[in-house]
Amino acid sequence: MLMTAxxxxxYRSKKQRWCLLILSVKRGDYTMKLSDIxxxxxxxxxxxxxxxxxxxxxDEDIIKALKCIYSHYGMGYLHQxxxxxxxxxxxxxxxxxxxxxxxxxxGQVMGFGAIDAHPWFPxxxxxxGLVVNPIARGLGLGDMLDDCRIEVGRQRGIRGLFxxxxxxxxxxxxxxxxxGFIPTGMxxxxxxxxxxxxxxxxxxxxxxxFSVYIYDKDALHALHAPDxxxxxxxxxxxxxxxxxxxxxxxxxxxxxxxxxxxxxxxxNLLEVKIIDIGQNFREKxxxxxxxxxxxxxxxxxxxxxxxxxxxxxxxxxxQGFIFTGCVPGGEDDLIVLEHLKKPVDxxxxxxxxxYERVLDxxxxxxxxx
Length: 369
Fold this sequence. Notes:
Layout: E1 4-12, E2 18-26, H1 34-38, E3 50-54, H2 59-73, H3 85-94, E4 97-104, E5 109-117, E6 124-132, H4 141-156, E7 160-163, H5 170-178, E8 182-191, E9 206-214, E10 220-223, H6 230-240, E11 243-246, E12 258-264, E13 269-276, H7 281-286, E14 297-303, H8 309-318, E15 322-327, E16 334-340, H9 353-366
Parallel strand pairs: 6-7, 10-11, 13-14
Antiparallel strand pairs: 1-2, 3-4, 4-5, 5-6, 7-9, 8-9, 12-13, 14-16, 15-16
């Protein structure tokens, strides 16, 4: 079906987020909203002979991918930006975002997933966004898409991949584990109850895990790890198969602390990356909105390649942050801490044994979380 003349409009919601209003697609002498177009997703499976390929940078192929997403999530997919056709084209052309689809011989796209380069995780790309049309579940499309994306990452020459599986969804954890991903930490309260995409009960916050798949295991990682979590770091790096040394304390030239922020206002979440830990890190930490009623959780990343990491870690712990793991294998070997307003509801977490083991280690370090 030929589609032409795409037009996208946006409006600003009361919560200060850009939302899609309409996508007009000319078909003869009339137009349709995006949601009406996507409602025409495939509901009958024509054949089961599937192969994986990369999404092409053209309107019809992107619409195929969006229909697959819509088949499960409707207009509630976590990566809302992809509903903007211009944005979808832009990220595909940029090279930082690679989307893959599972397509059968009849041309039906029944599976979708991507890898995405995030500036906060240099050397790694995030593998996520997996969707399978409900009528094609049980055919191994998730495994096919994981194999495809892992190979794409390998060909790009990056150090590895990381993923953040949702904790109420043990199937995604099993899938990643089957393909060699190793759990390395947790990301509690990564989204509000309304962001669970149908996976939760609408009450609990969305909790995720961190896991990695590393291609380059020959590089030696020089780590300035805090004493409190060295045993945890040792366990994780050995499990992943990485070479590492714990460095002795060293002097660092005088610098100012540099932070980057991502404030998810609708989720009441603030994400922070300390790009460079300077001598004034205490002042910068004190400026974080720890008591702001509009911020339910703060997730903070900093590199263990920085000599001031242990000192900054201790100060953050004194300000009520908990240690929630690490993201190893990239250029700066990240450590993860969080400041939570609400305690972790362990009873709500549906997690596989490998993630349960990581969670047990975190409780040993933090006590109550």
